[in-house]
Every structure is written in structure tokens, then in C-alpha cells.
Design a protein that fits this description.
mainly beta; Immunoglobulin-like; 5 domains; five-stranded mixed sheet; 2 helices; Fc receptor-like protein 5 isoform X4; transmembrane; membrane; transmembrane signaling receptor activity; cell membrane
Length: about 725
């Protein structure tokens, strides 16, 4: 029978990145109403970052009082009431009401119902209650009526498809028993919740300047009760789709926005199966026009021959990335492009008289170009000394050299009949290099295998060109020349072998200078660890001491190892020198299951493959039972011999004995006992015993005597149970 229902849930509206989410309770089985005598398993989950790595305890509350504290996240309950849980470092969960009903008929519903989901309402009768007719009611009115022959213990499911708000209400079911007695179930209140609220579109700026970047964020909050649901997002401007369509990221980046990109923006969010889709309101973004400001400056302002001249292009209001071109204007209205680069400075290392003229710069992006006003450069000579010579035709001038004295020199002579200039001589003052500084530049705070490491060597003083040499443990790696005094770099793709000491040398022909030594430690991420289960024998047996050993073959210490049983953390250990870590367990039957371990050294966590552990329980002493159709067995009766051990892991081999003679063997794979039927003759009187063995040592029952009526007591033997003879069941004393 089908019931078409739509469900809607109103979840709290919060940001995409809400803080301190509550703990959440999940039910297994999913029903909030069950029969008395049944159990419900609660699972507590936390959703803060790295929850699985940190949680050491879970607290369970019933009627606001602490019921227990566990290391695992599951808890089995059998009492009615409101339950809450709290994972370490997380707030308390919402209340979850459970009802363990004594009634003959119950209506079962899931804890949470979300929009567009398929939901089952289960009308269930007790095992001893047979029903002829089932009816389902909503708010007191019959929804569906179907008469069926229902066997004892059967149930009827009512299906709700594509749930929505119209299906909110109180539901119950009734049934008519075989004797025409009417029975009624409990009431269940259905409130359909939102899977996620309507998204809100936010922008990093609603009035950006053209050429700038804008980030759009489609904010919503998925219900924590549905952690397995994934959302997709789609962004639009007016009626146009942005990007490549649906994607998993709630953010969309517009790296460069222009005035024509102004408009109405909106987004959509939907579940991965597209069953729930919602649209945000529209957000207006108005892109402001850029007002460029391009100016050119010279440094220094007064330019003398022999000095360095730096032209600076100040660029404001031009969206990047930009390139800068430099131009020089000549007489006769001609001009020449000097240089183009992404740098906003242009250098003339040594200025001469010929560098007189007008200069301007042009800043360009991918869409347009903007020109500065020109600046005029007038190169002046520097007067060093003025000397009047009355007796000599030659004069000298001496000075102590510094690096500022590089440049062009000339002299003039004047005796009142006209000034004469000499030819210009070029003087280059070479400065020895200073001690270089070696800098190691990695992409992160730590140097990790696979990173690209830049080694940069630079001397703060020294005339170019300068040769730089890089060394690792006194072995030369690379040489590089710098013609502009900015140092030199060398890149290394890091491996573990690159750990060690580095230094560099600088030389411009005036002698080598060596940097200080810099030590580099290259850290290696952990490899996938290997989990080994070490027991004292081939099979793990209750009472044995089991060692769990986890070891990663690669990885820089210290390494933190964590051990898991059925995805629940059971212990951790840190290895500071390598070699892995171990964790010991004294085995019980509860230790059977899947085990894994994780290894981490701050560069990521790796998990081992899962290992299955089966803990074997030795068989207990079996019990032999003789089952006859009457109090006194007679010849011709069929007697059942039943042998069963109350404890022991299957398969168990059972053997039956009569007067120390093996009758039959039978294997039990289910853990239950086995039986042997005998059609009695006079020869069947006497003592019987049985033996159970699952490979961990046989156990023997006590001996039981079968007396057959009509046979002399001399042939019957004793009527008391007897212990088996020494030996096994054929000769050893009985074992407990």
C-alpha cells in the first residue's frame, strides 16, 4: 500500500561556516518507538574540525541526568525518555525522545523527516498479535485502508514519497485482531524539515573598481542530521550562467571585473541528486570606473654626470596586471622606446651628457594604455677643484676613492682667451664584495620532500658582475653571475638527501667572501603505515595478549600512531626515533572485528589497510541430554541424544560415545549443539557421553546412563550419571 506524502523541515538558518556545531544523535534502528524488551543503539557524532582525532569521551544523558560516559560513540538503551549526548569539545545535542511501548500495536517513524525524502511509517504488531485489517490515520482521519491476511509478527509499511509541508501532522494506525478486537497504536508527530535554508549570496564588494577582484559566496547551512548529503552551487549574472555550471565550491572568484560586468547576481544550491534546489535573492553589483593617475619622477632630482639615474613611473588607478614602457623624446619630434617590463623603475647606471632629454612612461593592461606627462632630464657636470696656475702648464688633483667616484672626468683650461675642455675619461671604482647572506626560501614553514626550495645568495656591497657559488656539505651545486647587484638564486626540488648544511660564496675578482652556514632539515611525510597483529599462537584466543604494531616505512619523526577498532580510537603512541609503535590488548570476545591504525607527523595523516581479527573462544564442557518420548524408554523408542557446549567459537566438532565406543561425529557451524537419534534395541542400554572440540582442546560431558524397560538390571548398569573414564571421552578425565 502506498501513501504519497511530502515532508519539510525548518532548520536554523546560519552561515556556511557556523561555529561550535552541536553534537548529533543518530538512531540504529531508525525508529523512535519500539516494543519493550527491545534495544536501540544511539550514535553520537561531532562535526567540529579534526573531531575524529581528538575525541576521548562521550557523555550520555537521560532526562537531563548523566547516565554514563564512554570512550566509543555508541550507547545501547532500553528505557523510555529524552536522551542527549555530548562529545568532548562539543556542545550538548538536541533531545531525542524514545518510547519503549508495552502496547500490542505501535506506529514507528524515523527521528527526522526532511523535504523531498522518501519516508516509511511502519505499523507493527507484537509477535503474538495477529491482525486482519490495518488502517492509517492522519489528524484523526483515515488515509488508507487495505484488508490483508497478516501472519503473526508481520508488519505493514506506509510509504511517503517526495515529502513536503502538507504532510505535517499526527499519525496513528489501528488494527483488527483475529477475534475482531480493535487495537490502536501510539501517535507520531511528523514535522518535515528543510534540508537546507534558502541560500544568501554575498560579495566581497558590491561597488568594486573595474580591474579589481570580487569573490561571490553562496551561503547556506546543511542540516547536521544529514552529513552524507553533498551540496552543489551555481552562480548567475542576470540570465547568464557564470563559470562551468554546477560545482561543489560555495565560492566563485571573478579575478578581474569590468564595468560591463555590472548587474544582478544570484546563486542556486541543490543536493547532489537534484531533489532539493533553492535560489538566493538577487544582489546588485555596480562596478565603478577607474580614474588613472600616471606620473614620472627622477631620482635624484639634480642629475650629475657619472651618477646613477632612476626613473620612477607612479601608477595609480590602473587595474593590473600592468606593464610599463619607457620612452625618450629627441629633437625633431622623434622618440624611441627604451624598455618594457613589469617593473615601475628604469635605471641608467652611469649618466652622461648625451642622456639629456625628455622621458615619459606608458602603463598598459590587457584593455588599454595610459601615458604620463614627460619629465626633462638635464645632466650637469660636477666641479671638483678650481686652481689658478701662474708658473706651470699642468696641474694635478688627488682624492681618496670611494664607490661614488665612479663616472666620467674631464678638465678645462682658461687663460682669459677662451675656455678649452679635455677629452672625457671614464673611471670605474671596483668595490670588493662583502660577506654574502644565504637565505633558504621554502613554500611553507617547514621544508618538505617535493617542495621547491630557493637558495638566494646576496652580497650587500660589491661591484658587479658578481659570481655566486652554492655549496651543500662542501660540494659545489651551482654557479651564477649577477650583473645588477641583486644576488643570485638556485632552485632545488627537495628530497630527503637534501638535508644538511649550506653556504655560498661571492666573488667579483677582488677575492672570495663566504656566507655563514645555514642548516636545512627536509621533513618526509609519513607513508601508509602497516598494521601487524602479533599473537602468541596462530589463532587469537580469549585471554591471550595481542600486540598491535603500527609502522610507517618512511616519515620524519616524531610520528604519532593511533589505533582503531571498528573506527573507534582505542589508543595512541608517539615514536620519537622511528621504528613504529605498539599497543597491547588482553583479548575478550568483544575484541573481534576490524582494526586499523593511522600515522601522522604534522605533514598529513596516512591510514593503514584494515586487518580483521577473529578472537576464538575455547569450548566449554558440553552437556549431554537424552530425550525420550516417555519417562521409561522401551525397545523400539526413538531417543534423541543432544550435545551442546554453552561457549565456544564455531565450527565445533561433536562426537557421541556409547560405552567408550564412538557412535557418530557431527560438525556445527552455527555454534548450536547437534543431535543423534537412536531407534532403541536391547544393545543400546548403558552409559553415553559426548565430546566438543573447536581446535583449542576437546571437552567431555559427564556420562549419562540410559535404562531400557524390560532388560535385567544386570545388563542395565548403574542408573546414575557417571564421569567418563580416564583418557579423553575414551580415556581422559572430564575437563571443565
Amino acid at each position: 500500500m502506498l501513501l504519497w506524502v511530502s515532508l519539510l523541515v525548518l532548520a536554523p538558518v546560519s552561515g556556511q561556516f557556523a561555529t561550535e556545531p552541536k553534537s548529533v544523535i543518530f538512531l540504529h534502528s531508525p525508529w523512535t518507538t519500539v516494543f519493550q524488551g527491545e534495544n536501540v543503539t544511539l550514535t553520537c557524532k561531532a562535526f567540529h574540525l579534526d573531531a575524529s582525532e581528538k575525541i576521548k569521551w562521550y557523555r550520555w544523558y537521560l532526562l537531563e541526568k548523566t547516565q554514563s560516559e564512554t570512550s566509543g560513540n555508541t550507547h545501547e538503551v532500553h528505557e523510555s525518555g529524552d536522551y542527549r549526548c555530548q562529545a568532548q569539545d562539543s556542545p550538548l545535542s538536541n533531545r531525542v525522545g524514545l518510547f519503549f511501548s508495552p502496547a500490542n500495536l505501535i506506529l514507528q517513524a524515523p527521528l527526522d523527516v526532511f523535504e523531498k525524502e522518501s519516508v516509511i511509517l511502519r505499523c507493527r504488531a507484537k509477535a503474538n498479535t495477529g491482525l486482519k485489517t490495518i488502517k492509517l490515520y492522519k489528524n484523526g482521519k483515515v488515509l488508507e485502508d487495505h484488508t490483508v491476511e497478516i501472519s503473526v509478527g508481520m508488519l505493514t509499511d506506509f510509504h511517503i514519497h517526495q515529502a513536503s509541508l502538507k504532510d505535517n501532522g499526527k499519525y496513528h494506525c489501528t488494527g483488527v485482531k483475529e477475534d475482531d478486537q480493535l487495537v490502536s497504536s501510539n501517535s507520531v508527530k511528523i514535522e518535515v524539515q528543510e534540508l537546507f535554508p534558502r541560500p544568501v549570496l554575498r560579495a566581497s564588494s558590491t561597488q568594486p573598481t573595474e580591474g579589481g577582484a570580487v569573490t561571490l559566496t553562496c551561503e547556506t547551512q546543511l542540516s547536521p542530521q544529514r552529513p552524507d548529503v553533498q551540496l552543489q552551487f551555481h552562480f548567475f549574472r542576470d540570465r547568464r550562467s557564470l563559470g562551468s555550471g554546477w560545482g561543489s565550491s560555495p565560492e566563485f572568484w571573478i579575478h578581474t571585473i569590468w564595468r560591463e560586468n555590472s548587474g544582478s547576481y544570484w546563486c542556486q544550491a541543490q543536493s547532489m541528486n537534484s531533489s532539493v534546489q533553492k535560489q538566493s535573492q538577487r544582489l546588485q553589483i555596480q562596478v565603478k570606473k577607474v580614474v588613472p593617475d600616471i606620473r614620472i619622477y627622477s631620482r635624484p632630482k639634480l642629475v650629475f654626470e657619472g651618477q646613477e639615474l632612476v626613473l620612477i613611473c607612479s601608477v595609480n588607478g590602473v587595474p593590473g596586471p600592468i606593464t610599463v614602457s619607457w620612452y625618450r623624446k629627441f629633437k625633431l619630434r622623434t622618440e624611441r622606446k627604451l624598455h618594457t617590463s613589469s617593473e615601475t623603475e628604469f635605471k641608467i647606471p652611469v649618466v652622461q651628457n648625451s642622456h639629456d632629454g625628455e622621458y615619459y612612461c606608458v602603463a598598459s593592461n590587457s584593455r588599454s594604455s595610459f601615458r604620463s606627462d614627460p619629465v626633462t632630464i638635464n645632466v650637469k657636470g660636477v666641479l671638483l677643484m678650481k686652481i689658478e696656475a701662474t708658473l706651470w702648464r699642468t696641474m694635478s688633483y688627488r682624492f681618496s676613492l670611494t664607490e661614488e667616484h665612479s663616472g666620467n672626468y674631464y678638465c678645462t683650461a682658461d687663460n682669459g682667451l677662451g675656455l678649452q675642455s679635455s677629452e672625457t675619461l671614464r673611471l670605474s671604482v671596483t668595490i670588493p664584495v662583502s660577506h654574502p647572506v644565504l637565505t633558504l626560501r621554502a613554500p611553507g614553514a617547514q621544508a618538505v620532500v617535493g617542495d621547491m626550495m630557493e637558495l638566494h645568495c646576496e652580497a650587500q656591497r660589491g661591484s658587479p658582475p658578481i659570481w655566486y657559488h652554492f655549496y651543500h656539505e662542501d660540494v659545489s651545486l651551482e654557479s651564477s653571475s649577477s650583473s645588477f647587484g641583486r644576488g643570485a638564486s638556485f632552485n632545488l626540488l627537495l628530497t630527503a638527501e637534501h638535508s644538511g648544511n649550506y653556504f655560498c660564496e661571492a666573488n667579483n675578482g677582488q677575492g672570495f667572501q663566504r656566507s655563514n652556514t645555514v642548516s636545512l632539515t627536509v621533513r618526509v611525510p609519513v607513508s601508509q603505515p602497516v598494521l601487524t597483529l602479533r599473537a602468541s599462537r596462530a589463532q587469537a584466543v580469549v585471554g591471550d595478549m595481542l600486540e598491535l604494531h603500527c609502522e610507517a616505512q618512511r616519515g620524519s619523526p616524531p610520528i604519532l600512531y593511533q589505533f582503531y577498532h571498528k573506527d573507534v580510537a582505542v589508543g595512541n603512541s608517539s615514536a620519537t626515533l622511528g621504528g613504529g609503535a605498539s599497543f597491547n590488548l588482553s583479548l575478550t570476545t568483544k575484541h573481534s572485528g576490524n582494526y586499523s591504525c593511522k600515522a601522522g607527523n604534522g605533514l598529513g595523516v596516512q591510514q593503514s589497510e584494515v586487518m580483521l581479527l577473529s578472537v576464538i573462544v575455547p569450548v566449554s564442557r558440553p552437556i549431554l541430554t537424552l530425550r525420550a518420548p516417555r519417562a521409561q524408554a522401551v525397545v523400539g523408542d526413538v531417543v534423541e541424544l543432544h550435545c551442546e557446549a554453552q561457549r565456544g567459537s564455531p565450527p565445533i566438532l561433536y562426537q557421541f560415545y556409547h560405552k567408550n565406543v564412538t557412535l557418530e561425529s557431527s560438525m556445527s557451524h552455527s555454534g548450536q549443539g547437534v543431535s543423534l537419534n537412536l531407534s532403541l534395541t536391547a544393545n543400546h542400554s548403558g552409559t553415553y557421553s559426548c565430546e566438543a572440540d573447536n581446535g583449542l582442546g576437546p571437552q567431555c560431558s559427564e556420562a549419562v546412563t540410559l535404562s531400557i524397560t524390560g532388560i535385567s538390571s544386570r545388563d542395565q548398569g548403574s542408573s546414575r550419571p557417571q564421569a567418563s573414564p580416564s583418557g579423553s571421552c575414551l580415556g581422559s578425565p572430564p575437563q571443565g
